[in-house]
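Example S7 (structure tokens).
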């Protein structure tokens, strides 16, 4: 059966790491049909629309989407695209790789981030020149869907349970509802949970990341804390992610457009290649997904490495080495 993959590089280094990842996928010779589409700052400048309707429709109908990075138009691109694939959870593993100079080489975390609401609900107003407001939406239904997924995830991956990261001592209604709902679903499913305040988590994870394993958190917290975890493992060039819905998924590196190096040909493709491995697993190509993971892990350990990891290799060098390993 052919799987249709929407390919949306977006902006900045998305234009470099996504083509690199396609080279890896093509080397596997699977029954994948790649359909290319545009979104982001450049399209917005040209057409006035950051996310053309045909790009949205493609993501909504394809079996999976491979996305690169969003820049200034992130709110108009990545948030609707996650809606297009009905994604209720953003899975962000943060793992240190052997041989990489990491602040905390013992780090092995998985963030399960709520992906539809919270402060990313897009409800903002400018009331006066002096005052802007934001409405933070938390629903029991979205919290429950995330929690049910988290329970299945820890059971499926043989983990002990998960931590619920929140700030319910201040955001009593919204994070209170999130915490209580997630905890109740875990209890219904016999899954153990811990609770941790988001600010305390930030300190504790830096001091000793082995205190944590799977972390279930609201939308913004998941975005910020996973970037923090990237700092522990060697940088944003290493963190993949999967936006998973019931039938579809959108796979993207955690990093953004990296305008400081965009166009230089030195972006680290590892995060996007591993995101594609997560896509392969989602589509049922488990053996190939493992092979891609292993190839990336070997290349990270033995080199070549891009400058973010202390090397002087190009995106093409790293990609060729991964393909070679495969
Ligand atoms: N590939 C990730 C990306 O484009 N990040 C830019 C960004 O601002 N993302 C916000 C988010 O992931 O919710």
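Recovered sequence:
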């Amino acid at each position: 059966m052919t799987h249709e993959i929407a390919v949306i590089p977006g902006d900045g280094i998305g234009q470099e790491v996504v083509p690199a990842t396609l080279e890896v996928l093509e080397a596997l010779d699977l029954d994948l049909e790649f359909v290319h589409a545009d979104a982001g700052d450049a399209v917005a400048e040209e057409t006035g629309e950051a996310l053309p309707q045909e790009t949205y429709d493609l993501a909504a109908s394809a079996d999976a989407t491979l996305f690169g990075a969003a820049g200034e138009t992130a709110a108009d691109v990545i948030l609707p695209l996650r809606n297009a694939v009905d994604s209720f959870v953003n899975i962000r593993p943060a793992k240190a790789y052997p041989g990489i100079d990491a602040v905390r080489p013992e780090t092995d975390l998985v963030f399960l981030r709520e992906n539809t609401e919270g402060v990313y609900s897009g409800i903002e107003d400018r009331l006066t020149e002096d005052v802007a407001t934001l409405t933070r939406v938390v629903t029991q239904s979205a919290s429950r869907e995330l929690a049910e997924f988290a329970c299945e995830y820890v059971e499926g991956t043989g983990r002990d349970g998960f931590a619920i990261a929140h700030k319910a001592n201040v955001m009593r209604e919204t994070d209170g509802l999130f915490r209580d709902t997630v905890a109740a679903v875990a209890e219904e499913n016999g899954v153990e949970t811990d609770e941790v305040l988001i600010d305390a988590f930030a300190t504790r994870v830096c001091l000793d990341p082995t205190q944590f394993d799977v972390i279930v958190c609201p939308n913004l917290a998941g975005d910020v804390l996973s970037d923090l975890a990237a700092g522990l493992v060697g940088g944003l060039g290493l963190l993949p992610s999967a936006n998973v819905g019931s039938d579809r998924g959108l796979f993207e590196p955690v990093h953004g457009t990296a305008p400081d190096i965009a166009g230089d040909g030195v972006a680290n493709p590892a995060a996007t290649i591993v995101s594609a491995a997560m896509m392969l697993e989602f589509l049922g190509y488990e053996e190939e997904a493992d092979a891609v993971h292993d190839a990336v892990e070997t290349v990270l350990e033995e080199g070549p490495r891009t400058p973010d990891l202390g090397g002087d290799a190009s995106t093409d060098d790293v990609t060729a080495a991964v393909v070679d390993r495969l």
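Notes on this example. The mean pLDDT is 97.
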